[in-house]
Amino acid sequence: MACDPLFVTADLGPLPTPFATTATLERGPSATGPWTFLQEVDLLAEVGATYDTTPPPGETVWYRWTTSTGGTLVQGPFVIPDITEVCLRDPLRPWANLTMGFCSNAESLIAQACTPGGVEYVWAGWGEKVRRADAGLFDRFDAETPADVYGRRKNLDTSIRFLTKTLAAKTAVYELFTWGGPIQIVAPAEYGWEQYFVQPGDLVESYLADRIDQRWPHRLWSAPATVVDTAAVGPIQGTACANWCAVEAAFPTFADMTAAGGTWLDILEGETQC
Fold first, then answer.
1. Could you tell me if 52 and 169 lie in one domain?
2. 233 inside domain
3. Domain region containing 247
4. Same domain? 76 vs 93
5. What is the per-residue pLDDT for 198?
6. Beta carbons within 8 Å of 268's beta carbon, 6+ residues apart
7. CATH, residue 59
8. One domain for residues 177 and 256
9. Residue 63 bridge partners (DSSP)
10. Which pTM value belongs to this model?
11. Is residue 105 part of a domain?
12. Could you give the CA distance from residue 49 to residue 57 in angstroms, rounded to a whole number?
């Protein structure tokens, strides 16, 4: 799915500067950049394997590996599939990502909740988008106009709304938002929404059946959100199928994994479980 992370790997052994133990991974819109830092990757036998957790949908990208000993490898082009859903991404915890579908219209959202057999997560849109001013007006003595001190107007303040239809989906929303940090929201091109990172505020959970029967599992969610800089980089926790907790649950010992035909690369790619 286009909302999922993109697996990126490279054999850096043939570079003229051997015995590298780490490499810097960057992403760019062409083979010559400009390059955006993604993460530092530990190498195993001079092979790098990791995930790009925020690949830009519908775009063509290149990756540049720069080893700790100075070798450089450029890979590409990679064509990232476009999306037809709204993705809520945690760049450091991709296993917590949520993919939101749609209802056909507002009436089906409220009256039918996309019908019981519809999508589990339903995107209900953004609220008003406000760009805060950064200015101060100061009265001046014996002057008809104030002094105007100003700077660059701020980026967006808005709010997000979505619906969940099961208790399992309710738990998944908790897993994504409980971390507390910024998330990336990616939407189809027709929304005109850039691939912003936002810092959510208070997350409000409302019962869709507030005055009927609260055993009905549907929930309406809303939160204010402010556009922030790209989320801080750090170690990635792994995808739902490629993290150490999942591997340990499936294979208590290394011998169990190898007996099943698994390798370290399979773990990084998520193929041992998925």
1. no
2. no
3. 241-274
4. no
5. 95
6. 7, 9, 49, 50, 242
7. 2.60.40.380
8. no
9. 27, 75
10. 0.78
11. yes
12. 21
Same domain? 168 vs 255: no
pLDDT tens-place string over residues 88-114: 999 888 889 999 988 765 555 555 555
Mean pLDDT of 139-163: 94
Number of domains, the chain = 3
- Which is higher by pLDDT, 31 or 112? 31
63/120 same-domain check:
no
What was the pLDDT predicted at 150? 93
Query: Can you tell me whether residue 28 is helix, strand or coil?
Result: strand
Mean pLDDT of the chain: 85
The answer on 203 and 104 residing in a single domain is: yes
Residue 170's contacts (CB-CB under 8 Å, 6 or more residues apart) are: 164, 205, 217, 219
Query: Residue 125: pLDDT above 70?
Result: yes
For residue 118, give Cα distances in angstroms to 124, 125, 162, 163: 14, 18, 14, 12
The whole-angstrom distance between residue 171's C-alpha and the CA centroid of its chain comes to 18
Strands (E), the chain: 6-11, 22-28, 36-42, 47-52, 60-67, 72-79, 86-89, 98-100, 121-126, 130-131, 135-138, 147-150, 156-164, 183-186, 197-200, 204-207, 219-228
Question: Which residue intervals of the chain are DSSP H helices?
Answer: 106-107, 167-177, 244-250, 254-259, 264-269
pLDDT tens digits, one per residue of 194-217: 989 999 999 999 987 666 677 888
Q: Are strands 197-200 and 72-79 parallel, antiparallel or unpaired?
A: unpaired
Residue 14 lies in a domain: yes
pLDDT at 120: 86
* β-pair type (22-28, 6-11): unpaired
- The reply to whether 137 falls in a domain is no
In this structure, the chain runs to a length of: 274
Q: Please indicate, yes or no, whether residues 31 and 123 belong to a single structural domain of this protein.
A: no
Tell me how far CA of residue 151 lies from CA of 75, 134, 135, 148, 253, in angstroms: 40, 5, 6, 10, 59
From 46, 64, 82, give the residue that closes a domain.
82
